[in-house]
Design brief:
The chain is of the alpha+beta class. It is built from 4 helices and 6 strands, in the order ααββββαββα. Strands 1-2-3-4-6-5 form a 6-stranded antiparallel β-sheet.
């Protein structure tokens, strides 16, 4: 049974590599990295990204003691938007955030809110929300995983948020400041 799980996890990673490799880029690591993450779940994700050829920057622990990884993403519609992934010390969850997917003028607030509500209706796995403190739209996704399965699950979540965010960016383009 364990062997079957490993084969399935490898198959998922291979499928993601074919569909996702090359779409994320950052500055620090590509392939084998020399840094060991603070948490085992983060390390599993880093190893999966290494296997997939995804470039990322391991930032270490943030002020909340979450293990932080940054990936700079360019898609069909958006260029060089940083995705932050935070892993909890419990090794059972990760939070993905595209902070400031777009910035917009306060005069477009109602139109952006309507567009964000439609995106939330269309895409169930991520949440788009409007931040009125700086008039931006943020995209979030939270993932739970059993101990030892973080790599493949987090790679699938990464694929989901970047693809949905790219489509959301396109829908929000008319409002970009």
């Amino acid at each position: 049974m364990k062997q079957l799980k490993r084969i399935c996890a490898l198959a998922i990673v291979l499928v993601l590599c074919l569909g996702f490799a090359g779409t994320a880029s950052a500055s620090k690591y590509n392939g084998s990295h020399s840094t060991t993450a603070a948490y085992s779940s983060t390390q599993s994700f880093l190893d999966a990204m290494d296997d997939a050829g995804i470039i990322y920057t391991y930032q270490g622990l943030d002020s909340d003691e979450d293990d932080w990884v940054e990936i700079s993403y360019s898609g069909d519609y958006c260029d060089n938007i940083d995705l932050d992934v935070y892993f909890s010390s419990d090794n059972d969850r990760a939070s993905y955030r595209f902070w400031n997917l777009i910035d917009f003028n306060s005069s477009d607030y109602r139109e952006v809110l309507v567009a964000v509500n439609k995106l939330n209706y269309d895409y169930k796995w991520v949440t788009f929300y409007v931040d009125t403190t700086d008039y931006s739209v943020t995209v979030s996704l939270d993932t739970l995983f059993p101990a030892g399965d973080a790599g493949a699950i987090c790679l699938e979540s990464l694929d989901q948020i970047v693809n949905i965010s790219d489509r959301g960016y396109h829908a929000l383009e008319p409002y970009i400041k």
